[in-house]
Amino acid sequence: MANTPAVTVGAPDDVGLRKVTIDGKPVGRVRCPGELRRLLRHFGLVSGYDIIWIGGDSTVWPDRSWWRRTIGTFMAAGLLATACVLFRIGIPDSFDSLTYAGRIAGATFLLLGLVEMIAATATLDYWRKRRMKYSGVIILFGTLVTLGVNSLLLLVQIIGQVYTPYLLLWATLWVWSVCALWVLIRSRAWKGMRNPRRIAIGAVVSALFALANLGYSQVYIPYTTSPLVQTGAEFGPPSLNRDGTKMYLSVHLYVKNSGKISVYVLGSIYWIHVRPEGAAQDDNLQLKLIKSHEFVTPPGQVLNPGQEFAQDVVVEIPNPGKSKYAAVRAEPEVYVIRKDRVTMDSSAYERSGRYAGRLREKRQDKEPQGPDEDYFRYQSEISNSDEILNMTRGRQRITLWWVFHGNWPYIYADVGPPGERKAADPHQRTAANQKTLERYGLEQVRGSLAMTPFVELLEQAQAAERSAR
To answer: Does a structural domain hold residue 154?
Structure first.
């Protein structure tokens, strides 16, 4: 009897495991009588031993394997779903984000995705044998990441007031994270950690600093830095033909990016008018249009900081000596959209040009102003500056109309979902639509007005003709 080993079976823990010791030495943990017999047989104990039961006799085996496996599967599924979301955001942003800060954010999402994968793997240990000391802490951290990420995505979705199919996913994962936290808190997943309160405070402070840095780099700096695009017109020297029946006037048109942000030039227009004698200077209705067209071709080009697009056009004024004009005026206008907020296929945008007749035949567009207006249209899908915005705002499309409208042709650009048909109406923009345009940095840039007296131009042309003779 002196050599009979002392076998002790301890009280069941949170997952129904009972600690087994032989002669005071821990040899393992078991969940049922069968596991206990196999464990003792492994250590050479088949018979001739006594068992001391602590915290319940041989009938106390509280393990419910179906419930434990259900909880473990539930936890692993939520963590893996969050990992997929983080990889879905992180991989494109790490390589294709429009800003350096966006790529750093993408790398951060990739790192968090790896954390979620590790946490999902830890569920295999935590809801089985719990051999890893900190598996519960890892799962707890992964659950907090899920709660934070989905709270952020829900917030972006709600603030943007654009509801995509991903909204159901964010809401589901947010509810999952709350339920998972409740399960982990009840099971005291942080047990075994030294100074868990200090670690929690440190994690919260670090997260706040990371969020503040992300917000500063991703939101504050881009949105407080405005593009500076300038456009204008300048008159060149006029000239007459041999018999003096026509005057030719060259006009230099330009658009320059004087800021620090690249833009796409979506469309351009210039107007060259003459003002009849006796007409008031502020009466634009009496102006007579001589020429109007695009001057930045092809449209959709990228205008980088310091870069300039320019074109010289020549207008013809018949019978200048008999014409009763007071002045000639030229004015350009362009539509631009920020390149740091959208990505657009410039070649596809250029090829998308369609005239009104073709669009009316296929019923692909609403009529600008009225059915008698002639126009052509450019259109292209755009993507946001990062994958988070793509998933929370959905697909978008930019449309620009170039409308022939009497003495005052005009261009008009708008942003909206691909399935939405809009009419060109520059005078009726809702507040919600204006907010969308500001979000993407769509801007109408009216150029400086160049105007000169017609008599002065005619005298210059006549003087140049006499000098040439």
So the answer is: yes
| Dist. CA 399–CA 267, nearest whole Å | 10
In-domain check, residue 425: yes
**Whether residue 377 sits in one domain with residue 297:** yes
Angle at 272 between CA 266 and CA 275, to 5 degrees: 145
Torsion from C-alpha of 439, 441, 444, 448, nearest 10 degrees: 140
- For residue 397 the two structure tokens come to 């499309």
pTM for the predicted model, two decimal places: 0.68
Domain-terminating residue out of 186, 206, 224: 224
CA angle 256, 258, 348 (to 5 degrees): 50
DSSP string, 297-331: -STTEEE-TT-EEEEEEEEEEE-TTT--EEEEEEE
Helix axes 100-126, 65-96, angle to 10 degrees: 160
Q: Which residue range forms the structural domain that includes residue 438?
A: 229-464
Q: Is 173 exposed, middle or buried (0-12, 13-18, 19+ CB in 10 A)?
A: buried
Tell me what pLDDT residue 359 has.
66
- Residue 7 CB partners (closer than 8 Å, separation 6+): 20, 21, 22, 40, 45, 49, 50, 51, 52
The answer to whether residues 16 and 114 belong to one domain is: no
The residues, any chain, with a CB within 8 Å of residue 112's CB and separated by 6 or more, are 86, 90, 145, 149
Taking only the tens place, the pLDDT of each residue in 227-280 is 789 999 999 989 888 887 889 999 999 999 998 888 999 999 999 999 988 877
Distance CA 33, CA 43 (A): 16
Q: Is the same domain home to 192 and 272?
A: no
Report the mean per-residue pLDDT for the chain. Answer: 80
Query: Are the C-beta atoms of residues 97 and 108 closer than 8 Å to each other?
Result: no
The low-confidence residues of the chain, meaning pLDDT below 70, are: 1-3, 14-16, 47-48, 60, 63, 65, 96-102, 129, 160-162, 191-225, 357-373, 419-433, 469
Omega of the bond leading into 298 within 30 degrees of 0 (cis)? yes
**Within-domain flag for 60:** no
Same domain, 244 and 257: yes
Q: What is the structure's pLDDT at 384? A: 78
Q: How many domains does the chain have?
A: 3
Contacts of residue 431, Cβ cutoff 8 Å, sequence gap at least 6? none
Do 163 and 16 lie in one domain? The reply is: no
Angstrom distance (rounded) from CA 253 to CA 310: 6
How many other C-beta atoms can be found within 10 angstroms of the C-beta atom of residue 206? 10
In this structure, what token pair is assigned to residue 428?
A: 């009726």
